[in-house]
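Researcher: Structure prediction, please.
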Amino acid sequence: MEGLKTQREVNGLFELTESARENLKNNEYYNDDLAPTKLKERTWGTYHIAALWIGMSVCIPTYMMASGLMAAGLSWWQAIFNIALANLIILIPMQLNSHAGTKYGIPYPVFARLSFGVKGAHIASITRAIVAAGWFGIQSWIGGGAINAVIGIISPSWADWNLGIWIAFFLFWGCNVWIAYRGAETIKFMEAWGAPILGVLSLGLLIWAVSAVGSVDKGIGDVLRAQATYTPGKFWSVFLPGLTANIAFWSTLSLNIPDFSRYAKTQKDQFRGQLLGLPTTMALFAFVGVFVTGATGLVYGEFIWDPVVVISKIGNPFVAVLGAIGIIIATLTTNIAANVVAPANGISNLNPKKISYKMGTLITGLAGVAIMPWKLLSSAGAYIFGWLGTYGLFLGPLAGMYIADYYIFRKKTIDLNGLFKGKDGRYWYKNGFNMKAIWVWIISAILPLLGKVVPSLTFFADNGWIIGFLIALFLYPVFMKSDSTSLISDKEFSDMTE
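Model: Predicted structure follows.
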C-alpha cells in the first residue's frame, strides 16, 4: 500500500517520501533542520568535503598541539609522528560513522536516537554539544587574540589597553555566530574558498621561519636538529597522553560527522574527500607548527607555542598583519564548521518544535563565553593534558557504540520515519531511553576515568580513548543481543521503501 511507503531509495541513498514528511510535520520530535536531507539537497562533492577538512585542520589548535608536544619534551619528528598516528586512528571511526549520514541524510542527534533512544539521544548530543561549545570559546579567544594583535600593530596604544583583547574577542565571536546563523550553504561556500587561501598562508609562514633563522646565521638543519627534552625514561609518559589528546582532537567530529556527510552526493565523495583532506592536512600543518616553533627557539631563545605571540614579535608590520589575517581566516573556517553545527543541532533536538538550528546557534555562542576559554588556554599542559585528554575519555565509548550499533547490530538498515516518532516508533525503547546503551557508555568509561585518579592505573587514562572505544565496541552488541523491537526485517524494509 502507498501509505506504507515512508522512504525512497535512489542509487543506494535514502530520503523520506513527501507523504512521510507531511505526516511528521506536527510530530514533536521533528523539524525541518533535523529532517533527513532530500536527495536534491546533497550537493557536496569530493572537493567540498576535502575543503571542509582543510579548512578545519589548518587551525591554531592544530599548530598548538604540535608545538605543545615539543614544549612537553618531544622532538619535532616525534611530535609529527604522534599527530599522524592519531589521525590515522581517528579516520577509521570518522569514515565508518559518515556512512549513515550519507546513506540516510540524518544529522548527528537523529543518528544518536538509533542507539540511545529518541529521548536518550539528548545525553549523547548534549555531551558533544558541551565539548563543541568549549571549542567554540577556545577558537573565538584565539581569533580575538589575532584581531587584537593586528590592531596593536597598527595602533601601539591599543596594545597597552587592557580592554582591547576583550573587544577583539567579542568582535570575532560575533562574526562567527553571524556566519553560522546563515546555515550549511554559507559554510560550504566559506570552506570552498578558504581552503586554497589557507594553503598559501601556511606556505608563507614557513617562508618567514626560514628567513628568520637565516637572519641569526642558522639554517633549516639547525631547526630540525632540535632534540627531545623529556626526562630520560619518561618518553611514554609524554607520548601516550599526547596520542590520546590528539585522537580526542577530532574525536568530536568522528561522532557528529553525519552533520556534514548528510550533504555528500555519494559515499565515494565523502570517503575520498575525508581521506584526502584530514590526515594529509593535519600532518602538513603540524609540521608547519613544529618548524615555526623550532625557529622561534633559535630566533628568540625560547620555544613559543602560541602563533599569536609569534606574530606579535614579527618586526615587519605588513608581514605581521598578513599573518594575523591568516590566523583569523584559519580560525573562522574551523570554528564555524567544527564547533557550531553540532551543538546547534543538539540543542534543537532538545525541543524541535520550539528550538530551531538558528536559535541553537545563538545558545552555542553564549555557552562558548560561559566556559571561559581564556582559562583553558592558560598553558600547554592545561590545553593538551587537561582539556583534550579528559574529554576524549567520554567520547571514545560513544564512537565504539555507534559503529557497533550501525554495522554489527542493525546491518546498516534504518527506518527513517521511525526515528522521528515517539511511543509508536521502534526507537522509543523504554520511556524514550535505551538504558542498555547508557550502561555500556558508563562501563566503558570507568577504567579510563579511574586512571585519572588512581596512580597505578594511569595507563588506562593515557590510552583512554582507544580503551573506551574498544570496550564499547565489544559490549554494545552483547548488551543488545536480546533486543529485537528496534530491528527491521528485510520484508519490513522492503515494504516501507519505494
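Model: Residues 394 and 445 are 6 Å apart (CA to CA).
Researcher: Thanks, that helps.
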